[in-house]
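User: Here's a chain of 85 residues. Predict its fold as tokens.
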Amino acid sequence: MKTIIQSLGISFLIHLIYLVGTVGVGYIKTRNYKPDIENKWGNIETLQNEVSLGMVGSPLFFLFTFLGVALICGLIIISYRKFVC
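Assistant: Prediction complete.
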């Protein structure tokens, strides 16, 4: 039971780092964006009128990746305890 809880905790931590990293990169890109309006003024088709931030993913995809990473972490923990300890 301890191995299952540890593997789920590690999987949660990995997914949390991934999501925080994704949001952080998007924030940094947004803060450092400087539009080049002068060069694009003549071509009105290249100007954007909508902005989309974030990502869209299926909740089932996140569930399967969470469980898959937990399974891999569990196997690593079990093999580490078997061969090292």
